[in-house]
Design a protein that fits this description.
There is one protein chain. The protein is of the alpha/beta class. It has twelve helices and 19 strands. The protein has an eight-stranded mixed beta sheet, sandwiched between helices. Strands 1, 2, 3, 4 and 5 form a five-stranded antiparallel beta sheet that branches. Helix 6 packs across helix 12 and helix 7 packs across helix 12.
């Protein structure tokens, strides 16, 4: 609602610029743009999608940009509100045992996600561990993650999946819970998993749970999700009241609050009103501290996937500048390069990544890409996170950087998956997307578990893909 109670109409738009510098100058407007979905279609045509009001469209057009309105989002708000469950379908113990029958009716709420995790542990205490996370949200919610492991193998890598770090990206939680239920059911029933044209055999599902530790934190931002589902569909941030810095503009972008170049200002904002407000300090938010807690506590985690939307992308490190494999001095740890990183396509700086690590993460990303494609032919693009817009303080770069900041930390290979083509797809389309991303998750788990052609790389504490 706007001032005086008048409704503010929002639109899905596409902004066109003629040069990269012009496209990136849009950051000065503090608009709600989907930076990672930006594309260069020609030498003089670059586009970025976003959600804008009439007033914002006018400002951008007056600045010389072309704005194409894709759709009026007011109808979408009403449609999606009808696709959120009005009751907790998993409140009673054993409610999860008929998960697919109940979940088909719509998106899960924050309460339902927590109930589903509790139910899974109650039903399967022998190999499901419920992890109560130590930091309560601003609205005093307790969050949980889950660990699933079977068999007696004690030397195993862990994989951590996180979802719904951005409030309006509801489907991340649904993907995570669905994958958990599918994998556990397949293991118990000695069966496989099928997602469209992608199949995992009974032997493969057994291999996964008997050779890895599967960690899932499905709803990183429960306050934000609840607000998005009940008050403002397009809400992105958490619900920090920002009492000291901007009480009229609550919320921090959790995916700009991690301790990776947080001070740099690359792809972040210090303005509390901005959709990409980074907070008062790195890890100022309880939700991001919960992610850090999992990494600090479960030291065998070696792979990390943060599930977002949208763009149909599988992204790998780094996000702050173009990668290079030659000069290790050009590193986020080297203050000599402060102020030089974040400028794309120059020769002054490139974020160093060893060629072995880069080859490895690309190989794994392509395996996930192929698995997504096998489901129903969707072609997710594998690319470096930086894209056309550099970023800092994101989850994936923080997770991969930890072993470089502190040599006692395990190397954790990190990805972001951007699913779908809009923030909140219709639930019928979300049901298809769930299959796409569950196939990618299964492929990663299978590869790390040794179910495919893999070989341990103990020096890097990771897994190298066999060739």
């Amino acid at each position: 609602m706007g001032k005086g109670g008048f409704k503010i109409t929002t639109y899905s738009v596409q902004i066109t610029a003629k040069a990269l510098e012009e496209l990136r100058a849009l950051e000065e407007f503090d608009l709600d743009l989907k930076y990672r979905a930006a594309q260069q279609l020609a030498a003089d045509r670059l586009i970025v999608p976003g959600i804008l009001t009439d007033e914002q469209i006018k400002r951008v057009e007056e600045a010389g940009y072309t704005v194409k309105v894709i759709s009026d989002l007011s109808k979408v708000v009403a449609e999606r509100a009808d696709e959120v469950s009005k009751v907790n379908r998993f409140a009673e113990v054993r409610g999860i045992s008929k998960f697919e029958e109940r979940a088909v009716s719509g998106y899960m709420t924050a309460d339902e996600v927590e109930s589903a995790l509790i139910d899974l542990q109650s039903l399967h205490p022998d190999f499901v561990t419920l992890i109560e996370l130590p930091h309560r949200s601003w609205e005093d919610r307790i969050s949980h993650a889950i660990r699933v492991r079977a068999g007696t193998n004690t030397d195993r890598d862990g994989i951590l999946f996180t979802g719904s770090i951005h409030a309006r990206e509801w489907g991340g939680s649904d993907i995570c819970i669905t994958f958990l239920v599918n994998l556990i059911d397949a293991y118990i029933n000695c069966s496989g998993m099928t997602y469209g044209g992608k199949n995992f055999t009974a032997t493969q599902t057994r291999t996964i749970l008997e050779n890895i530790d599967l960690f899932v934190f499905p709803d990183v931002n429960p306050d934000g999700k609840n607000y998005s589902q009940t008050q403002d569909l397009w809400w992105r941030k958490n619900r920090n009241p920002n009492t000291a810095v901007g009480p009229s503009t609550p919320g921090v972008d959790l995916n700009r609050n991690f301790d990776f170049l947080w001070d740099s200002g690359i792809g972040t904002s210090s303005n509390p009103a901005s959709p990409i407000y980074k907070g008062e300090s790195a890890f100022s938010e309880p939700e991001t501290r919960n992610v850090r807690y999992l990494l600090d506590t479960y030291r065998n985690i070696s792979y990390f996937v943060d599930i977002h939307c949208y763009g149909e992308l599988i992204l790998y490190n780094w996000g702050d500048d173009n990668n290079q494999t030659i000069d290790s001095r050009q590193s986020f740890l080297n203050p000599a390069y402060n102020g030089k990183r974040g400028v794309l396509n120059d020769t002054l700086y490139g974020e160093f990544i060893p060629s072995q690590d880069q080859n490895m993460v690309i190989d794994l990303a392509r395996r996930m890409q192929e698995s997504v494609s096998a489901v129903r032919g969707k072609n997710y693009m594998v690319q470096q996170s930086v894209g056309l817009y550099p970023t800092s303080a994101t989850s994936d770069d923080y997770v991969f950087s930890r072993h470089l900041v502190n040599g006692s930390n395990r190397k954790v290979y990190a990805y972001t998956i951007e699913f779908g083509q809009e923030f909140v797809p219709s639930f019928s389309e979300m049901s298809n997307i769930i299959k796409d991303i569950c196939a990618a998750m299964g492929e990663l788990c299978l590869t790390v578990s040794g179910g495919e052609d893999v070989q341990d790389d103990r020096a890097g504490r990771g897994v190298m893909i066999g060739t």
